[in-house]
Design a protein that fits this description.
The chain is of the alpha+beta class. Helices cover about 25% and strands about 20% of the residues. Strand 8 and strand 9 form a beta hairpin.
């Protein structure tokens, strides 16, 4: 349980980030005080999705799925599974958001990273379930043997016996409210289910199972000038657009929209809104990562103007810098000057 002071610091930092990149802050999540706690089975094995928990082998009606640009979470390896109701069909809107049918069950299992890049011990499985009126959330915590996971309390849980490689703090399982910080800002809660994000293999599997028709999906590809830009816009969309988009309460006065077809016009050569310092002039300064607020927030070198504290993005799962993602964004920013120079000549 966090202290009142640490909660205040977290809230203050979040407000400052919004001011720097996009205007004034406003409440990101409405209180769930009046809402009944969702009912979930006490054990993961009681959910109708896995027939073998040790191997995470799904039942016939369920299947693993993949996204093109996974959300970075301190280097954890994540395994995703879905189960849609028999006969349930997916609807898609004009921007390629996939609206899943009532009865859908989605799971994401977090594993300790290994030196080979594969998933090691299972830590937690987060569950999304689409009910008649809304989505419900749950987290299951795995035993040491990896044979069963038990329903968590819905509150933030620190696993004092587990620290991820390169992380000093104990692993923190998010609360239900923290889950909403990312999921409440996308049209149908399941952030990965958009045409630019869901993998071609998964789309093929959905069509094979008759959950999705054969019609082309809108915005099925990221609109980018080259491969470097495509990778960077995809990375930022996968890691940031669930908050920075018009459907999110984090879409504040500066209108920072990091959906892949909007990110460039929201970032390049624009000043961070209401920035009190003048030594970091742009959200993204073409050719110059050091003068780019977005890069420096990811690299944790953005000064607050007071003491040694620096601001950072993303707000969760950030105990370790994502060096690979930082390199992708850095390469794109540097490449912006090269592209601009060739055009001018």
């Amino acid at each position: 349980m966090s202290s009142p002071m640490s909660s205040w610091v977290t809230a203050t930092a979040a407000a400052l980030l919004l001011l720097l990149l996009g205007g004034t802050s406003k409440p990101t999540i409405k209180s769930e005080t009046d809402r009944a706690e969702p009912e979930f089975a006490g054990k993961l094995s009681d959910l109708p999705i896995f027939k073998n928990l040790v191997e995470l082998a799904p039942h016939e009606g369920a299947f693993p799925y993949e996204v093109n640009f996974p959300l970075y979470s301190d280097g954890t390896v994540k395994l995703r599974h879905a189960m849609l109701p028999e006969g349930g069909t997916i609807e898609a809107d004009e921007e390629g958001v996939l609206f899943l049918p009532v009865g859908t069950l989605l799971t994401k299992t977090f594993c300790v990273p290994t030196e080979t890049g594969a998933g090691g011990a299972k830590i937690e499985t987060r569950v999304l379930r689409k009910d008649e009126e809304e989505w419900s959330y749950a987290v299951y915590l795995w035993n040491a043997e990896g044979t069963e996971a038990i329903l968590g309390s819905g509150q933030e849980t620190k696993l004092g016996d587990l620290c991820l490689p390169g992380v000093k703090e104990a692993y923190a399982v998010p609360s239900r409210m923290q889950c909403l910080q990312c999921h409440a800002g996308v049209p149908d809660v399941a952030a990965g289910w958009q045409s630019w994000q869901i993998s071609d293999h998964t789309l093929t599997e959905l069509r094979r199972r008759k959950h999705l028709d054969d019609a082309p999906l809108a915005r099925a590809r990221i609109e980018a000038a080259n491969e470097i830009e495509s990778e960077a816009l995809g990375y930022m969309a996968g890691n940031c657009a669930h908050c920075h988009n018009p459907a999110s309460s984090n879409f504040v006065g500066g209108e920072l929209d990091l959906r892949p077809w909007k990110a460039k016009e929201s970032l390049v050569s624009l000043p961070p809104a209401r920035l009190t310092r003048n030594d970091i002039p742009h959200r993204v300064a073409p050719g110059d990562p050091a003068q780019s607020a977005a890069f420096r927030l990811m690299a944790r070198t953005f000064p607050t103007g007071g003491g040694e504290m620096t601001l950072r993005m993303p707000p969760l799962g950030n105990a370790r810098i994502d060096e690979r993602g930082l390199g992708i964004v850095e390469a794109w920013i540097k490449n912006l000057t090269a592209v601009s120079t060739r055009v001018e000549k």
